[in-house]
């Protein structure tokens, strides 16, 4: 999935600024153009994860033409681009996985899950989300 990004030109003394118009408050920067785009993709992933964790709606990417037509993004100081994000970030489909762990670690995991009143899967998911 590709989100349009608006990049403010950098210089030898200023970083490139990046705004993701479809995701309010999502922005990033980088000393080099490529770094700014890469950091924008990371910022989008974090924004999406946070929104989903809070039960908020995640807007789909707008068309580039629709965004470029907005007066707040007119002018030569802006460069348009795209940042790619993994569509799996949006997918809450349950998937069965097979993992391999030493028995002593599995026993410790099961004990902690039981103490927390969780299933093994629920405990692992909770740990991953809180990390």
Structural class: alpha+beta
How much strand? Answer: 15-25%
Strand order of the largest sheet: 3-2-1-4
Radius of gyration: 20 Å
Number of strands: 4
Report the top-level CATH class of the largest domain: Alpha Beta
- Tell me, what's the shape? elongated
Q: Percent helix among the residues?
A: 25-40%
**Known CATH architecture of the largest domain:** 2-Layer Sandwich
Order of helices and strands: EEEHHEHH
Beginning-to-end CA distance, first to last residue:
25 Å
Characterize the quaternary organization of these chains: single chain
| Count, helices | 4
The chain-level mean pLDDT equals: 90
| Main β sheet profile | 4 strands, antiparallel
Pfam families: HicB_lk_antitox (PF15919)
Protein name: Type II toxin-antitoxin system HicB family antitoxin
Domain HicB-like antitoxin of toxin-antitoxin system: 3-128
Key traits:
alpha+beta; 131 residues; four-stranded antiparallel beta sheet; elongated; single chain; Double Stranded RNA Binding Domain
Describe the structure.
- The protein is an alpha+beta fold.
- It folds into two domains: about 1-90, Double Stranded RNA Binding Domain (2-Layer Sandwich), CATH 3.30.160.250; about 95-130.
- Helices cover about 40% and strands about 15% of the residues.
- The chain is built from four helices and four strands, in the order βββααβαα.
- It has helices at about 35-55, 65-70, 105-115, 120-130, and strands spanning about 1-10, 15-20, 25-30, 80-85.
- Strands 3-2-1-4 form a four-stranded antiparallel sheet.
- Helix 3 (about 105-115) packs across helix 4.
């Amino acid at each position: 999935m590709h989100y349009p990004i608006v990049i403010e030109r950098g210089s030898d003394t200023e970083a490139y600024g990046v705004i993701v118009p479809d995701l309010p408050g999502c922005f990033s920067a980088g000393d080099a153009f490529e770094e700014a785009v890469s950091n924008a993709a990371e910022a989008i992933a974090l924004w999406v994860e946070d929104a989903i964790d809070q039960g908020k709606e995640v807007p789909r990417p707008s068309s580039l033409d629709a965004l470029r037509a907005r007066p707040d993004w007119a002018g030569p100081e802006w460069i348009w681009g795209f940042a790619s994000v993994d569509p799996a970030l949006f997918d809450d489909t349950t998937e069965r996985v097979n993992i391999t762990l030493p028995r002593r670690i599995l026993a410790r995991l099961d004990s902690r899950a039981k103490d927390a009143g969780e299933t093994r899967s629920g405990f692992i998911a909770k740990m991953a989300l809180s990390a």
